Amino acid sequence: MRVFMLLAALMIGGLMTGCLFEDVQKLKNDSRLLRDYLKAYPLPTHCSQPGRTQDIVCNYKLVIWNVGGEVYRGHVAPSLVEDGVKACNDLRMKKYDDNDLHMIMEHNECPTVQNYRYQVYEFKIAGPTIPDSNDPIDLVNVAHGPYMQKGHIGYDEVKNLPIAR
């Protein structure tokens, strides 16, 4: 019983001095920083950006150009961005029973083609060199290394679309 009284006294004292409020604010800031840090790294089951070493094989559709030797740079194909914007808008129009998905879609806006920010990735190509082209090229990463190679894995027969993990 004395333990509960001592605990209650400490809590009341902390509330009166304001120490607990400062600690809660620090805790909130720390948890926000930790969440942002964890978001910076993809899950092991999700594809990373092209050219990074990862354990899974992923599909990429990129417009690429040769920088020198086996080193290339590329960005996401504009047609893929258009398809993503359309899919996002279609998803926003649907009603789902999943409350989490509803909250995400309700409080986040879909990007537009005009405000999409293309990131340029740098990677190495394994195999024969690929000529520069403004046309998008299907690439897959080579697992456990920074290399990419021309090709595509998987196919979704239901939607008649390539599978991109």
In short:
With 165 residues, this protein is α+β, with helices and mostly antiparallel strands.
Describe the structure.
- This protein is an alpha+beta fold and 165 residues long.
- The chain is built from 4 helices and 5 strands.
- It has helices at 2-17, 19-39, 78-93, 99-107, and strands spanning 59-68, 71-76, 121-125, 137-141, 147-150.
- The chain has a 5-stranded mixed β-barrel.
- The protein starts with a helix and ends in a 15-residue tail after the last strand.
Number of domains: 2
The description of the largest β-sheet is: 5 strands, mixed, barrel
| Assembly state | single chain
How many helices? The count is 4
Shape: elongated
SSE arrangement, N to C: HHEEHHEEE
* Spatial ordering of strands, largest sheet: 1-2-3-5-4
- SS-based structural class? alpha+beta
Tell me the total number of β-strands: 5
Distance between the termini: 57 Å
The overall average pLDDT, rounded, is: 76
**Spatial extent as radius of gyration:** 24 Å
In percent, how helical is the residue content? Answer: 25-40%
